[in-house]
Amino acid sequence: MTEREELQREYLEGVRARVRTLESLKKDIASKFPEAFEEVRRISHKISGSAGVFGFPELSSLAGAVEKSSDEELPGKLEQMLKSLKAASEAPAVQSSPERDMLKAKFDAFLLTALQAGKPFSVCFVRYEILSPSMSTQENLDGLANYFREALPAFLTKSDVVGRLDASSFLALLPYADLARAGTLIDKLIDDVMKTRFESAGGAFLEVKISAGLCEVKKDMTFSQAIDQSFSQSERAARLGGNCVMGSHIAEGSQKSVNILVADDDEMITSFVQRRLDQRKYKILTAPGGVQAMDIASREEIGLFVLDIQMPGMNGLEILERIRKMPKHAKTPVLMLTALGNETDIERAFAAGANDYLVKPFSPVELQARIRRLIGS
What we know:
Elements: H1 3-30, H2 34-50, H3 57-68, H4 74-90, H5 98-116, E1 121-130, H6 138-155, E2 161-166, E3 169-175, H7 179-195, E4 198-199, E5 205-206, E6 208-216, H8 223-239, E7 244-247, E8 258-263, H9 267-276, E9 282-287, H10 290-299, E10 304-307, H11 316-323, E11 334-338, H12 343-352, E12 356-359, H13 364-375
Parallel strand pairs: 6-7, 8-9, 8-10, 10-11, 11-12
Antiparallel strand pairs: 1-3, 1-6, 2-3, 4-5
C-alpha cells in the first residue's frame, strides 16, 4: 500500500466514526433540537475542510452544502452526504492526482537536500473560500485557482514549488525558509488577495477569504503529516476570521492587535466588519449607539474609529466632535461609514475631524484598503 493509499485509509476510518455520530444525530434533528443542528454543521465544516485534501472533493462539496443549509434544507442534504460518506468509506482509495504526486516527489527531494544541509524547510497550506454560497461554483473556483497559480510563485522564491491540492486549496513547499520567513511571504500574498477585485464568470463581484497554515518540516516527517499539520494551522487561521496565516511559531493571542471601534446601530454591518478583518491584527469593539461608543472610547486605547452618522441618541458626527476633544484621541484616525453620501454631509464630517468617508453600500476590498491606510499596516 502506498503512503497515499494509507493516508486515505486512515482518513476513511475517521469518516466511518463521523458517519456513526451523524446517524445518531438524525433523531435529534427530526425532533428539531437546536444543539443537533449546530453539531451537524460543526462536523460538516470539518469534513468540508479536509475531504478534498485527502482526495475526496465531492465529499467536501456535499459537506459544505450541509454546513450552509437552512434548518429546513439540512435533513435532506444530510441524507445525501451520509449516502456519499458511506459509499466512500466502503470504496477503494482513489488514485493520486499528477499534481499531488509532483508535490510528493518534490517534498521528498527537499527533505533530503534542505535538511541534510542544515537548512529550514517549511510547508504552507493555502485555502480560499468564496463567501457567497450561490457564487461558489466550480467555474468560479477554477478562476480563483488560476489567480493563485500565478500569484503564489510571484510572492515566493525561485526554489519554492506550488501545486493545487483540490478545488479550493494549494500547497507551497518552501525549502530554505523558516516559519517566520515563510509567514512574511504568505502575508504579502494575503495583502494582494485583499486588494484584488475578483469577478465571477458572469461579471459579479466575488468576496474571497484566504486562510493559510504553516508547518516546519522535521527529519522523518512524511508528506501526509506535513499536509495534516499545515492544514490544522489553516484551520486556526479560519477560526480567527481568515485573511491571515498561522503557524506553530505563532501562539494564540501572542500578537498585539489594534483596537478598532465600530459604532453602528446595524449589527449586520458590525458583524461584517469583524468577519472581513484579520483578527490577529485587529480587535473589533462594537457599539450600537453614541453613548456606548463614548464609554468604550473613554476606557480603551483605540487605533481607529469607524462611525455611522445616523444612530439613535448621539449620532456619528457628535461622537466625532467629542472624541476630538479627548487628548488621547485627538489624532486617532476616524472613518465615517454611512449611507449619507451628499456633499453637505461629507463636508460636515471632514470639518469635524474625519480622516476618511465611505458611503454604504461599499466594496469590502475598498473598506479593507482604507482601514489599512488609516492604521498604517
